[in-house]
Amino acid sequence: MKIGDKMPNNQEQFKDLLRTNGLKVTYQRIAILEVLSNRPGEHLTAEEIYDLVKAEYPDIGLATVYRTIQLLSDLNLIDKLNLDDGYVRYEIGRKNREECHHHHHLICLECGNIYAFQDDLLENLEERIKETLGFEVEDHEVKLYGHCKECINEKA
Amino acid sequence: MKIGDKMPNNQEQFKDLLRTNGLKVTYQRIAILEVLSNRPGEHLTAEEIYDLVKAEYPDIGLATVYRTIQLLSDLNLIDKLNLDDGYVRYEIGRKNREECHHHHHLICLECGNIYAFQDDLLENLEERIKETLGFEVEDHEVKLYGHCKECINEKA
DNA sequence: CTTAGTGCAAAGCTTTTGCACTGCA
DNA sequence: TGCAGTGCAAAAGCTTTGCACTAAG
């Protein structure tokens, strides 16, 4: 992967966003966003992102990856996912992809694969919570653990 | 708090459970479960549990707290909660308390308080997922972030 | 030029592990 | 008495930070 190979439009938007926020456009920042952009739906750890970027830009440092991840997260360009396995994972943000605005995770306990799915069901729930408890929901994180189709079939 | 002050019945059940599993009954294990039992709905870190137990049993070691937490979790007596603040938290398990079998968390972004609520809504969702995706849900974790009643009122 | 951003290495943090000792059964 | 359980300290492993250097604007 080389900068500019894919999503040039998205990339320009990113550069503008950086400039708008008084931040500098660096190849490290672009490369990291690019790596994540080219892998929608994948959930990468900092180390994995580091390795992927390093393949193209061997000079990058792990600390920069961590700092950039933080930055991208603050800019709402990427989403965090914690699977309680000791790593924090990141994926390119929902808001940049057409399909989904409500997006949850199905985690297979056998193969470890992660599936995404959309659902509006929680909107009812959030309204109900507002009425019952006076709690105003702003964001949510839903993780469903179980057994995926493939693993179920394999056992049969 | 002293061993035996509260929930003696629950405590006997715990001792039996340990024996049944070929595990030894130690004052450390009882004290840790006791601390959590006396604080239903609170979400304590290992360090917090350590400090609470230490008040009564100054000899206890932090490593024992970690090992016992693991044990209690394996025995399904306590539930894990990760708020992504660098600590893993624990609370006395749902299965030991009458009220709830479906139990989610409302986390206030302003005061940090955590509220629990029950809901069966997800059962529909799980059925739908099974039908649509063939994914069999076994467990779920739902965290809703927002603003609690108190914090909303305070601003008014 | 100016200073935000970077790379490197060291430090920080929670959590885990090794090992000798203790105490439950 | 025998071995699971414990306490202590050290190790582990992810993430953050300090600092001198680099490069964006």
UniProtKB/TrEMBL annotation, chains A, B:
Q: Which positions bind Zn(2+)?
A: C108, C111, C148, C151
Q: Which Gene3D superfamilies match?
A: 3.30.1490.190, Winged helix-like DNA-binding domain superfamily/Winged helix DNA-binding domain
| Free-text remark on how the cofactor is bound | Binds 1 Mn(2+) or Fe(2+) ion per subunit.
Kindly state which keywords UniProt assigns to this record, in alphabetical order.
DNA-binding, Iron, Metal-binding, Repressor, Transcription, Transcription regulation, Zinc
Where does this protein hold Fe cation?
H102, E123, H140
**What cofactor(s) does the depicted protein rely on?**
Mn(2+); Fe(2+); Zn(2+)
Instruction: Write out the GO MF terms.
Output: DNA-binding transcription factor activity; transcription cis-regulatory region binding; zinc ion binding
GO biological process entries: negative regulation of DNA-templated transcription; regulation of secondary metabolite biosynthetic process
Quote the CDD domains the UniProt record gives. Fur_like
Signal in keyword set: no
InterPro entries reported for this sequence: FUR, Fur_C, WH-like_DNA-bd_sf, WH_DNA-bd_sf
Family stated for the protein in its record = Belongs to the Fur family.
Indicate what this protein is called per its UniProt record. Answer: Transcriptional repressor
